Amino acid sequence: MKISCWAEHWPFRQPFRISGHAFDGLDVVVVAAESEGLRGLGEAAGVYYRRETAAGMVEQITRIAAEGRSIDRQTLPWIMRPGGACNAVDCALWDLDAKRSSQPAWKIAGLTEVRPLLTTFTLGAEAPGAMAAAAVALTEARAIKLKLLGDGGDSERVEAVRAARPDVWLGVDANQGLTPASYDELLPALVQARVALLEQPFPVDRDRYLDGLGAPLPIAADESVQDRSDLERMHGRCQVINIKLDKCGGLTQALALAAEARRMGFKLMVGNMVGTSLAMAPAYVLGQMCELVDLDGPIFLSRDRTPGVAYRDGFISCPPDVWGWPPQAPGFTAS
Q1: Which terminus of the chain has fewer CB atoms gathered within 10 Å of its CB, N or C?
Q2: 299 occurs within a structural domain
Q3: Within 13 Å, how many C-alpha atoms sit on residue 170's CB side?
Q4: Sign of torsion, CA 155 160 166 172?
Q5: Domain match, 37 and 121 both
């Protein structure tokens, strides 16, 4: 098998702000796994708060490829550490396996069918009026997630968006930006606005703030759960686990994490680190098993790959020719 990789830059439509960070574009690594005249592709953006970069991921993958080891989805976790580089390789191997086995990736994953998924559409943290206007512009959205900053203005952001869009499911993501005091200040606005999910309110090293919190709405762990080793620590502290392929190292490990989290009683959410349709498609397979889906990455980009995933009436669907289908599948066109 030949493994190759390269970095790509994808500009954003407009700058995107979350707690502690602002982004104006996305650098990704793309991996090609080739064997017997077939080619599988995978993409990863890496985990920014772990200081993963496209250049660093390319270096890591190139080094592994040069060693000439035999690599498959089962041995990969023993060869590469969890993260974006491992994710890109793992997803390329899934795509290649689908082409070699003449079965779509979702069937290899043990699913009996795939269906369009209701996805959240995320609003970056801005002034309340700007976020309300952006929510109105998302005419097809049935579910919206707001990024918060923990700066004292979050209540106004939530109130403005709810007033503008009384019809949607509404969640908020603090990206570790709250303290117990700012949480207490924000909570009445969340309840009044019928917010259905609060994601990662506190910093990872302050997970103890969740102990005995008694929140009146579900709490989701994102940064606090990177892989299966983090589940036990979060048991009893949150109700939902946000699984991202970039964090845990690919679809193979994401499926294992989902199974273990489900066994422990957590509800499941699939998220993304932003990306093109090539990154959303493997996560779409995982999303078939999740109660909550956040796969809106391509909408932030000034352009997407062709072919790409489709967004319609608040749902995401993944045509066969995007990723993870054998070439002879109905609806597949060579690209």
Answers
A1: C
A2: yes
A3: 24
A4: negative
A5: no
* Residue that is written with structure tokens 């993409």 in the block: 43
Question: What domain range is 26 assigned to?
Answer: 2-101
Gap between the Cα atoms of 84 and 89, Å rounded: 9
Within this chain, do residues 267 and 145 fall inside the same structural domain, yes or no?
yes
130 CB neighbour count, 10 Å cutoff: 14
Radius of gyration of the chain (CA): 19
Classify residue 133: in a domain, yes or no: yes
pLDDT string in tens for the chain (335-residue length): 999 999 999 999 988 888 777 788 999 999 999 999 999 999 999 999 999 999 999 999 999 999 988 899 999 999 999 999 999 999 999 999 999 998 999 999 999 999 999 999 999 999 999 999 999 999 999 999 999 999 999 999 999 999 999 999 999 999 999 999 999 999 999 999 999 999 999 999 999 999 989 899 999 999 999 999 999 999 999 999 999 999 999 999 999 999 999 999 999 999 999 999 999 999 999 999 999 999 999 999 999 999 999 999 999 999 999 999 998 655 544 43
Residues 15 and 129 reside in one and the same domain: no
Question: Rounded to two decimals, what is the model's pTM?
Answer: 0.94
Q: Supply the CATH number for residue 70's domain.
A: 3.30.390.10
Q: Residue 175: which CATH number?
A: 3.20.20.120
